[in-house]
Specification:
Layout: E1 3-6, H1 17-24, E2 28-30, H2 40-46, E3 52-55, H3 62-67, E4 73-76, H4 86-91, E5 95-97, H5 104-119, H6 122-130, E6 146-150, H7 154-165, E7 169-173, H8 179-185, E8 187-189, H9 192-198, E9 201-204, H10 218-223, E10 229-232, H11 241-249, E11 255-258, E12 277-279, H12 288-306
Parallel strand pairs: 1-2, 1-3, 3-4, 4-5, 6-7, 6-9, 7-8, 9-10, 10-11, 11-12
The structure holds D-malate.
D-malate is lined by residues 56-57, 78-80, 103, 282, 285-286.
């Protein structure tokens, strides 16, 4: 019987469609020993005898892949695959899959939650109100303000649609622009420098690649308005966190809404000491609906591959097809 590890902590104890799909296909289901973000060491131990991992954000490093030659599939519940050493996976004949079209709306909603929390000074007002200070003050609008969307893929588009409803002016930096979408929703494509300079709210929706690493750094922050807010629901490594902390402390940036960190979990992070920051624990992509849709789609990818099918639209490393074989 083939074994699947259900790695993401949000799936522990959930009797979702993903479990039914896997059980109906005859899989033996294994859960991690502890309900937390798994580390490399956890994976080294817990992938023993596992054929497929229904994966969260835990690190599938070369060390992990070398240690588990029986592993056949890493099926990410989500669209980012930066936690997987895809080159090592390909060399080991391991198929890496993602779940397109399952969490873009969740991320867009969370992006607006962070943006609104910053604009409306939610944390301070809540704390002030419950401690009896009644801190009434004029907050900031979204309407009429410029929303800069860095990356207009599926998630960036879901953010643009919501920005349009809020009456925001929409700018985007996107190397592969969809002009038809932009025309329909009133998005103007601009250069990276213009996006930085003109955004009142700048939201990052790019994949984490070698090119995008630390794209927000001292130089790019220097282009931004001191009244602007930065939102990151994409990946922590897009931002040089030290430079961001410095800009926030020196009031060269009004605030930041941060869901993702370079190291996760981040421990006692300097951003947590700052009043103009709102943080969440890499939660943007996971609401109950997207959690179920992501897990279901990942489970279906595993089952398809185990049956000799090839769910091409989900596969990150198609070059592995020639050597891929499912043998338990
Ligand atoms: C993604 O890669 O789509 C998200 O990071 C999924 C998640 O939050 O686990």
């Amino acid at each position: 019987m083939s074994k699947v590890l259900i790695a993401p902590a949000p799936l522990a104890g959930i009797d979702g469609r993903f479990l039914h799909v896997l059980k109906a296909a005859g899989f033996d289901i294994c859960f991690p020993k502890r309900r937390a973000q798994l580390t490399e060491n956890d994976l080294l131990e817990q992938l023993a005898g596992i054929d497929a991992s229904l994966a969260g954000s835990e690190p599938y490093t070369r060390r992990v892949l070398d240690a588990h030659p029986q592993l056949k599939v890493i099926a990410r519940a989500g669209v980012g695959y930066d936690a997987v050493d895809v080159e090592a996976a390909t060399q080991h004949g391991v198929v890496v899959t993602i779940t397109p079209n399952t969490n873009h709306d969740a991320v867009a909603e969370h992006t607006f939650m962070l943006m609104l929390a910053l604009a409306k000074n939610l944390i301070d007002q809540h704390q002030g109100t419950v401690t009896g200070q009644w801190p009434r003050q004029a907050n900031l609008p979204l309407r009429g303000r410029t929303l800069g969307i860095a990356g207009l893929g599926r998630i960036g588009k879901a953010v643009a649609i919501r920005g349009e409803c809020f009456g925001m002016k929409l700018l985007s930096y996107e190397p592969f622009p969809d002009h038809e979408f932009a025309r329909q929703h009133g998005v103007s494509f601009v250069s990276w420098e213009t996006l930085l300079a003109e955004s009142d709210y700048l939201s990052l929706h790019m994949p984490a690649t070698a090119e995008s690493r630390h794209i927000i750094n001292r130089q790019s922050l220097a282009h931004m308005k001191p009244t602007a807010f930065l939102i990151n629901t994409a990946r922590g490594r897009l931002i040089h966190e030290g430079d961001l902390v410095e800009a926030l402390m020196e009031k060269r940036l009004a605030g930041a809404g941060i869901d993702v960190f370079e190291q996760e979990p981040p421990g006692a992070h300097p951003l947590f000491q700052l009043p103009n920051v709102v943080v969440t624990p890499h939660a943007a992509g996971v609401d109950v609906q997207s959690r179920d849709d992501m897990a279901h789609s990942a489970a279906e990818a595993i089952v398809s591959l185990s049956r000799g099918e090839w769910p091409a639209e989900k596969i990150v490393n198609p070059e592995v097809q020639t050597c891929f074989q499912w043998k338990s």
